[in-house]
Design brief:
The chain is an alpha+beta fold and about 110 residues long. The protein is built from three helices and four strands. The chain has a four-stranded antiparallel sheet. The radius of gyration is 15 Å and the shape is elongated. The protein starts with 5 loop residues before the first strand and ends in a 7-residue tail after the last helix. The model has no long low-confidence stretch (mean pLDDT about 95).
């Protein structure tokens, strides 16, 4: 594991308000440097032997490998889905300045 390696982490939820709450909570806790909420998308999926279609909001978090476990725990704790989508993708390349900012913003401040 490379603790400063950047990741994008995707989840979805069924309302804009829930998406903003998940995003804000993660950024406030420094689990993500930022989170982008995409307008409603249509999801089609199999759930409990039925094909479902629903409107969802996607949240894309920018974080580091070092903060992934804490972010996943946060999402599982605050998400109301029984099995929320939580998918991490490594950032293969990016602006050095932006990636440094992600690492800085996801580092917990030192306690006095």
């Amino acid at each position: 594991m490379n603790p400063t390696r950047a990741l994008t982490v995707l989840t979805t939820t069924d309302s804009a308000a829930k998406a903003e709450a998940l995003a804000r909570g993660a950024v406030e806790a420094r689990l993500a440097a930022c989170a982008q909420i995409s307008a409603p998308v249509t999801s089609v999926y199999r759930w409990r032997n039925a094909i479902e279609t629903s409107e969802e909001w996607q949240i894309l978090f920018k974080t580091t490998e070092a903060r992934y476990d804490a972010l996943e725990t946060h999402l599982r704790t605050h998400h109301d889905y029984e099995t929320p989508e939580i998918i991490a993708t490594p950032v293969v390349r990016g602006s050095a300045a932006y990636l440094a900012w992600v690492a800085e913003e996801t580092t917990a401040p030192e306690q006095p």
